[in-house]
Amino acid sequence: MNNQRLGLLVFSLACISSGRVFADEGHFGYDGSLGPKFWPKNFQTCAGKYQSPIDIEEHLVTRVSYPPIRYHGFADKPVGSTLTNNGHTVMLQLNTEEPLAVSGGPLKDHYLFQQLHFHWGHNDSVGSEDTINNHSFPMELHMVFFNQKYHNFTNALNHEDGLTVMAFFYEVSAEDNFVYAEIVEHLPTVVLPHSEAKLSRQLPLELLLPNDKSQYYTYHGSLTTPPCSEVVTWIDFKESILLSHEQVEEFRSLQDTDGDAMTHNNRPVQPLGNRVVYFNEREDYSSAVCSKSALILISALFIALLATN
Ligand SMILES: [Zn+2]
Question: How many C-alpha atoms does 216 have within 13 Å on its Cβ side?
């Protein structure tokens, strides 16, 4: 791959790039000749067998009980937060003193936070990328992490276990979500593609998420934007986050790289093929409890039992 092609690939990475868009083979959109149906023309992997998003049918999932997911640094206030319109979505990047990371659950490694971004639709009846029993939610949050052992996001894209994306669905409620107000109020300052803004109030990541994160679906899939790399362990949480209709509507006012309103940026669902979707019903604490002190206690009880016989 020559430097020009490599540059193009890096530029077009899922919701990451903030470089200029050229009217060439790296450009993608959600309508007409730039739409998802035509992505495979320039990005072959977009026609692969392990693509995302998918429809998750609850009656077909395999029920499992993984160890608890560990969230590192999620309660800490970032030092700085930057909101960027990258022409395809709006993303939030955080500067933190300690690295933000996740491990445990279905993950075999430690994954470091890269950025989070959103997908939404024309109106409140559509917008999420994955669907549950063919139900689409008005918006979806993607928190993107790369496997620490691959050192950075770009390198992680070359490995099957390179990324994990934590996905959260939104539902519309009558009330504004006051935590999200900080993000929503800054959207008018990033209407233009490739514009960015600093948040004035710093939000610990955990405030953006629902309380109950014990139930989730997980499967192997891809980035939902070109180059559609099949390197993602998806973790889709069952409990939704609530936003008001007015808050969701603000996202639709952003402009894409063609200067059009970014009314929708959700890829249609792709075939599941022979993949299995797992559903974590409850966390398995047995592995977490098996600490040194628990082992000593069990040994003491065993010895005491022997002594009474
Ligand atoms: Zn995404």
Answer: 24
